[in-house]
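Practice set, problem 2.
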Amino acid sequence: MYRGVRIAAVVPAYKEENHIAQVIETMPDFVDDIVIVDDCSPDDTSGAALRADDGRVTLIRHEVNQGVGGAVLTAHKAAMELGSDINVVMAGDAQMDPEYLPQLLDPVVDGYGFAKANRFFSGESFAGMPGYRIFGNIVLSFMTKLASGYWHIFDPQNGYTAIRTEVLRRLPMNKVAARYSFENDLLIHLNILDVPIVDVPIPAVYGNEVSSIKLRKVIPELLAMLFGGFWRRVWWKYMVWSFSAVALLLIAGIALIVMGPRGWDMGSRRKRRISYRRIGDVGCGALCSGSSDAAGIPPAGHTGKSEQTNDASHEGTYVGNSCNKRGRVRTLGVLALPSLSCRVTSVLLGERREPSPAPSDLAPGEPS
């Protein structure tokens, strides 16, 4: 046990006959269970695991290859049946240094639901790595950040992870991707569940192992999963479980993209041509007084079409007003403001007021 917590190491293995014994022999003593899943290896991976003769080992062999994700999920389920509290993934190729296992476990024991190793925590981490791999890791990390919503993480393909079994019980493990995109899809599912995660700086150990990943097949599959995972996260987290302002903004943004700026016109451009100069000439006092003659509001039955008057001061259009079938005049809200708002509006529009009478014009005894 580690700090009073039962620890299980889950080890996916495929064609690891030459490395699996090293993984078992270097496993720290505080690890209570070692669950190894031989993912239908054509070599003697299972035999090598049994020959290590460690009482903590539980060996499971897949009859059909299910991918690294499928092997990890099988091992997680078996570890939970053994009563583990925290499961840590250790690759069968011995690339994950067990000396750093306490650094990975501490945040999870202290309260995080998930901890992940990050190989690229300093400039020296990229030393000796080809430029195309550096570029690929940066692009893939950004796309995973966008899809998962975890913007503080990096190196998403790193499988050296620790997770609480209580989180695993909430996880729909049958819906998590089983192949190379397992780690990325897992992050998306964890964000939907609001699981707090943390990156832990841990260097990788590279040996003479040979990767069996076929990039031409993996990259399209990974990109498709990230695209679908982004919308799945948005749907469940911001639409179904918590319809928030984010959902409204997203719907409005999608509508603008699909319809375009002309789509919002709806053929009503003519109705929005309001003559603000006409409002200023009329004066707010007349508008608030309710007098249609003073305000220049057309009588009942007016069609709302533009009319020209003989008075130059009344020049303009009545597009802002229209009449309903009962002959009642409908005006814009700005024309029906309360009296206090009209006074403020009159100041803003520069409405002229009659000057106060001169002191000489006042009646005797009338205060000035």
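Problem 2, part (b): a different protein.
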Amino acid sequence: MGFLLSTSLTQALLASYLLWKDFRRQDPERYLFYLVFLMSIHMGLKFFLREILQDSFMFNHMVTCFAVGYGPPIYFYVKAKLFQKPVPQPTRRIHFALMGVLAIVYVLVGAWYMITQNPAILITYSRIAGMAVLVSGGGYWVYVVWAILKHDSQGVLAWLKVPALLSLLPHIALLGSLFVEVDLSIIRYVGYGEMCFLMLAIMTELLKKKEISSTSPSIEPLQPEAPTESMEEKSKYEKSGLTEARAIAYLEQLEHLMQTEKPYLNASLSLGELATASGINKHHLTETLNRTLGKTFYQYINTYRVQTAQALIKSGSEENLLQLAYAAGFNSKTSFNAYFKKIVGVSPSQYRKTHAPSKHAA
């Protein structure tokens, strides 16, 4: 048990680090960060009870409140990836309310036991918290499995299918313990083993996504052109005070950011976020794009995304078109197809037939 617990804790900390390095508040992967962060705290508390306090009774009966919190993040992640539906903050708070209540009870019960050494309160808490984990956690994972099997025809969450099914095992075992006598240590072994597998799957997916991002071929910087300005735009730009030389300098500054940091891979990138990252006033940023490239913010960003998708197709990527769209920074297949055809002249599927290596084109 000690080895499995240490392994789970190490994996959780490593996964948290990998997610934190590339943490973006608007990416669906932020929910995976919340999940593994809760797992880190869970495993840390269990490690503390078993290895530091060396109190086996508390270890066996102090069901951590964070186990109830695993369901909401994976639920939010699946909703964001499959349905592109962000969950409002008030709704997220409701989903985490049970964990918050149990967290308070967890602290109070632990303190009371350490003062009184009365085992009855821990036994009662263990039963109540166990039922909460069964109902809450089991319900969320059932939804995740259902959503993947029913709605993931493109294989966006193919990596999560097996871990999700395995995550049902400890809940099934816990449900069975209500009817037949089951050694709780067995359920704990199953639960920790499932957590290890889930975190390994998360880390594998993160590293795969990071590799796609880092190995996507470099895109040639967009070259300035001489766009035709309306009289209204020309008048507006004359009042802005942005000189032609400064606009060119801003473009070079922006292109350096796009080449090195690749912010366009963030599907939720906004004008304000790009302005902050580049250090350019957003009004000057908009004017720079229009005056030097003749493009709006979205045209500029989606041009890079389309070029990235083209490069991935030419490199022989095994991803399907929806996965390529996500890898390139698009948040839906519809917008990917529309912009790709508008910029390239053909649909992504047609482009793949003529430009992918022979095994893909066949």
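Answer key, part (b): The CA atoms of residues 188 and 279 lie 51 Å apart. Confidence is low (pLDDT under 50) at residues 226-231.
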